[in-house]
Amino acid sequence: xxxxxQEDWYxxxxxxxxxxxxxxxxxxxxxxxxxQNQISKLxxxxxxxxxxxxxxxxxxxxxxxxxxxxxxxxxxPTQSISSLFxxxxxxxxxxxxxxxxxxxxxxGQNSLxxxxxxxxxxxxxxxxxxxFDLTTTPIIILDEFDKLKNHTVRELMxxxxxxxxxxxxxxxxxxxxxxxxxxxxxxxxxxxxRSLVQIPMPRMNEKELEEILTKRLTRLGMTxxxxxxxxxxxxxxxxxxxxxxxxxxxxxxxIAEKILAVTEAHVDTAQEAVLERVDQSIRRQYHLATHxxxxxxxxxxxxxxxxxxxxxxxxxxxxxxxxxxxxxxxxAPYKVPxxxxxxxxxxxxxxxxxxxxxxxxxxxxxxxxEPLMQPYVILKGLASGLISKxxxxxxxxxxxxxxxxxxx
Length: 408
Hints:
The structure is a single chain. This protein is an alpha/beta fold. It has helices at 6-19, 36-47, 63-69, 94-104, 122-130, 151-166, 206-220, 226-236, 240-256, 264-277, 280-290, 299-308, 323-330, 336-345, 373-384, 389-395, and strands spanning 52-57, 80-87, 136-143, 172-178, 196-201, 223-224, 261-262, 355-358, 365-368. The relative contact order is 0.13.
């Protein structure tokens, strides 16, 4: 093996910053990992006239990355397939949203915006998209669809999908948003059931998270031990955001030591860097939830135990399920009466509403309001010595399941 110079190590470090993407969606097909079932459904929607798609799931599971890269896998020698990506904002109405689309749509020479009316209706959209040549298939991706607060916009979008489907217009709409179910994103979805392919995005499984690491390590010409991979996968809780962040930080620690094989010790060091890089809003909410002037408060411990339990398919857990992890953290038996009020207070605005609650008395269920908070809570628990990494692995051998519901 040829000895690496200081400049070689510098370039290796900059490459690590580029191939891992914790803060931005993946836009390179070769680096996109997993999601084969979701990709197949999206491709089928594009290739079948009258079909459109909606991608929904928790924050941080890779919805935008999927939407940005799936069309690269489409290949039809007789047809031109192009993707148009538009971000929705809370201030958008139906007209302003489609004006954004028209600005980027072209008839081959000019933007379509100047040729279209300001007061846009679903039928206007249908006519515009019907004007495209049959050899051209535009894919219009509306990201962050959940940010549209105007219910009328969602009704009009449902009407648009119905019109495009009824007239068999050769174009595909793909809606992307944070939601537990389709009905949270689009109104009147029952009327377009046959036209709208629903694509729930669960958290990633172990194999998919490992693929994220493998693709990037291969690109970098580096390796990672089995234990180091396992530690990153367990701590990620099925969220690719944390796999990217932990992987990148661990790789850079190894590179700083001029080592091409990432070990568990590198991941241990990387965890400290990740805690510093997590969004300020997450750190502030955690502090608000766990800080108390009273001695003997156990908000931090209860929150950590909540992050360690296996929830149901919607992300909820019952209070009784955290008795085991909390007892392990406290070193003594802890039953619900000892911490039930802590769970309720963690749902209050005074503590940042870090948890959500549903159900009735004695049947309450809780979940984290912000999914990205879970790994942070565990990392804080490890950093403070409240729990060991061996105990973490024992309690949560697999990533969490998604909190999604199927309505079709």
